[in-house]
């Protein structure tokens, strides 16, 4: 059985398999079938593949030289199902994004640029461009460092992700409904997309505090809310999609800006996605948005600290009215394995 060159990496608070596009079939259906077999889907344990039996560890980054002059590499994110043989390209992943720059240098798509290297990355899923800056002393990626991020044990090298302008939009607009606030099923929400389509709602409006560790009893209400919001946001029928995400907000209780509980799409996130946090932070800066009245906003230009079940994620967002000028976050990544992966036989 022939294998496929693969690098397994932790990117932020996610884990995924990174591939060069040229190492995978060019036909999307054939590619997706191969990736499902590599990950071991469908199977709740993914026992016959390299998936980790969880949505946060069932991710794939497909990287290639950029097709345009404004980026160095193109990054296609694919979310694979665990129990269902599903592959979705309808959303970004800002956590796996953290590993794309180092992966590009490791694979020779970009030369190391001295003590640090910056790689411009086009996020194919949304069209946004991010610049990743990370240490490369001696011309090699250095994953060791003293930066800690919530949800990951230990420390690693700092990776700065900077988004000039919007981080992209699957919906085609920052406010896809054209309004800062909507009412969906009797719940006031803000539907927003700065790199990740998110439905922001006050936890109290769903009978929650927003500090819970288990909100599985809200599954049906969250599904009804996001199905209706997905239509309003121009995403169509999202019953089988992982977007939009739903984020419940509450006043901060640990010195941050806001407290969040996010669903992906119906399972409560152990932390919060990078672009989900950026999008929630963006909403908090808009007059009239859900959550703004609950937030402890920092001075203009300072990072907004988004509390989540595993800690905090700090995001800098700069707006000009309702136009995004810039967003930035700090992440870490680490190479876990580099070699050849062997998929199970078809089907």
Automatic annotation (TrEMBL):
Query: Which Enzyme Commission numbers does its entry carry?
Result: 5.3.2.8
The cross-references to SUPFAM superfamilies, in alphabetical order and at most eight, read: Diaminopimelate epimerase-like
Q: Which InterPro entries does its entry note?
A: OMA_tautomer-like, PrpF-like
Keyword terms: Isomerase
Q: Name one GO molecular function term.
A: isomerase activity
Q: Which family does it belong to?
A: Belongs to the PrpF family.
* Name of the featured protein: 4-oxalomesaconate tautomerase
**Species in which this protein is naturally found:** Actinomadura geliboluensis
């Amino acid at each position: 059985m022939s294998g496929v060159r693969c690098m397994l990496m932790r990117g932020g608070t996610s884990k995924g398999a990174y591939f060069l596009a040229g190492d995978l079939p060019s036909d999307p259906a054939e590619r997706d079938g191969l990736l499902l077999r590599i990950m071991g889907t469908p199977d709740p344990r993914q026992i016959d593949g390299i998936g980790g039996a969880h949505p946060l560890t069932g991710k794939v980054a497909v990287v290639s030289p950029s097709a345009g002059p404004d980026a160095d590499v193109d990054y296609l994110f694919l979310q694979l199902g665990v129990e269902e043989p599903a592959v979705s390209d309808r959303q970004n992943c800002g956590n796996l994004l953290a590993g794309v720059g180092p992966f590009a240098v490791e694979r020779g798509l970009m030369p190391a640029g001295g003590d640090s290297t910056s790689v411009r990355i086009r996020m194919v899923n949304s069209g946004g461009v991010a610049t990743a800056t990370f240490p490369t002393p001696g011309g090699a990626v250095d994953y060791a460092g003293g930066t800690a991020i919530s949800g990951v044990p230990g420390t690693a090298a700092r990776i700065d992700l900077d988004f000039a302008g919007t981080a992209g939009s699957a919906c085609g607009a920052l406010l896809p409904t054209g309004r800062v606030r909507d009412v969906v099923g009797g719940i006031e929400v803000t539907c927003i997309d700065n790199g990740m389509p998110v439905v922001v709602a006050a936890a109290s409006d769903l009978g929650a505090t927003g500090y819970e560790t288990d909100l599985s009893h809200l599954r049906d209400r969250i599904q009804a809310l996001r199905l209706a919001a997905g239509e309003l946001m121009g995403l169509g029928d999202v019953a089988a999609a992982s977007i939009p995400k739903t984020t419940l907000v509450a006043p901060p209780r640990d010195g941050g800006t806001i407290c969040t509980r996010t669903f992906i799409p119906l399972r409560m996130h152990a932390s919060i996605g990078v672009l989900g946090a950026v999008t929630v932070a963006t909403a908090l800066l808009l007059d009239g948005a859900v959550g703004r009245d609950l937030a402890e906003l920092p001075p203009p230009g300072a990072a907004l600290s988004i509390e989540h079940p595993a800690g905090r994620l700090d995001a800098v967002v700069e707006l000009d009215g309702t136009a995004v000028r810039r967003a930035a976050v700090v992440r870490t990544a680490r190479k876990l394995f580099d070699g050849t992966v062997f998929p199970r036989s078809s089907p």
